[in-house]
Every structure is written in C-alpha cells, then in structure tokens.
Amino acid sequence: MGFLSRAEIEAMGFSRVGANVRLSAKASYYNCRHIAIGDNVRIDDFCVLSAGAGGIEIHSHVHIAVYCLLTGAGKITLSDFSGLSSRVSVYSSSDDYSGASLTNPTVPDAFKGVVDADVCLGRHVIVGSGSVILPGAILGDGVAIGALSLVSKSCPPFGIYSGVPAKRIKERQQTLLALEAQFVAGKGA
What we know:
The protein has a single domain, classed as 3 Solenoid (UDP N-Acetylglucosamine Acyltransferase, domain 1). The chain contains two helices and 22 strands. Helices cover 8% and strands 31% of the residues. It is mainly beta. The longest helix has 10 residues.
C-alpha cells in the first residue's frame, strides 16, 4: 500500500492534519478544506471521503479500512480509537425514497427531499465489514457493530449491535478503557 508523503498531504488543503498520518494514495478525498485529521490516523486504499458543509472530523488513533465511504452534507465524526472495517459506508445525507420528491444529484435541490443529519462514532467504536451507518446515528462510546449491519438509529454506549436493522444483542466489555490508560501513559508494549 502506497501512502502519500507529508508534503503531498499538506498540499491537499485539509483543515487540519496531525502527526503520524498515513493516507493511501489510492483513496479519494473531496472538499479537503472540510476534513480534519488527528494524530495516528490510517486510511487505506480505495476509500472515499467526500465532505459536505458539515465536514468530516477524524480524531486520533483511527483506522479506516479498504473500500470505506464517508459522505454527506451533515458532519461525520470518528472519535479517538474508533475504526471502520472494510466496505463500511457512513452517510450523513440520504434521498427521500417515498416518491414525494425527485432523487439523484442531477436534479436541482428544489425538487429533492434530501435529509441531512450528523453522524458521530464515539470513542472505541468499531464497525464490522459491510455495515451501513445512516444519517442521524450516534454510536456511543465503546459500541461494536457486527458485520453487514444497518444502523439507522442511535446506539447507547458499550453495547454490541447486529442485524438489519441493528439491535443490541449483548454488552461489550470495558476492559479496553484500562488498556487505553496504560497505552496513553506509555506503559507496556
């Protein structure tokens, strides 16, 4: 996997870029001035980050695996230590599918019924492969989303969610919080 150099990243015009950022040269980044990236972030090949007016905010120690999509007019936030497995799609905008309006980007906004809503993934959120996160979803700290799930509503903290639509199936351990404290303190490996 080929990563962009620091000079190449800075030339793209991101609103902010932290230290130790590895961005794939094979990913696509649109409206970079609305994208902020923290420290220790890795974005893999064939991802698409298309920031709307709300922007995309990626905090520190975040991994976005191959073929992920982050798009929409609402704000998308990925908090510290969160991660997206391959082929996850995060939408902060959605067309109205009811038939009450026209759809697609070739139609002027006056004829469409697009819904925009912020999406936020809390600290230590992990989203399994092939999952879809829809506008307005707030995933609380420590949430785990099983592969191939559809998240259309908010998920309270430290639960494991799975299915279409995603439902809470069990509790997630919070041991990772002690591990984070050790990591941040510089202890251990």
